[in-house]
Amino acid sequence: MTTDESNSDNGLMERQTTGEDRVRMVTRQLSEPRTANWIASEADWSHEPTKRVLERLADDGILRRDDSGTHTTYSPDSRRQAMQEATRLRDSGHTVEELTGILADMKAQIRDWKDEFNVESPNQLRGTIADEALDAEDEDRRREIAREWEHLQRRIQIVGFVIREWDFLAPTTEPAEASS
């Protein structure tokens, strides 16, 4: 049996990734700024070529480079991520009415948390952990709700943007509606 026959018998061919592929994969997963050394370690690649890839990604606007600290860090460009997420959401098959319902549900959830804990922000909710005598389970629940609240605030911005810019975000292959 040849290698090609073996690969077709096993289904998908095993794919080898390059160091650059791995650096790109690692940077897509970043949730906080990281140094070139950290990214190189995660990508299992040497520092210098990793740094060259990171510089190119920063120059292309895919990553943000921050030179203000003791070490240069790289993080995803939040504006670019928001636009990509808005485009994915617009293309997801949801109608504008469905997205409006999702938006209303997210806002209702935040209102419920404000009422339940008598606070106005996720950080105020975190502050109640110090102010009140809570058991560990209640503290964990409040920290989790604060994280979810921040996540929902960001999602509300993106979903609201998609609703407001529904026509602008339409795929170019979708026929334009005639204006009356």
TrEMBL record:
Regions of compositional bias (Basic and acidic residues) in chain numbering: 77-93
Tell me where on the tree of life, at the top rank, the source sits: Archaea
Feature: compositional bias, Polar residues = 1-10
In this chain, the stretch annotated as Disordered covers 1-22, 64-93
Cite the Pfam families for this sequence.
DUF7342
What is this protein identified as? Answer: Uncharacterized protein
Q: Which organism is it from?
A: Halorussus aquaticus
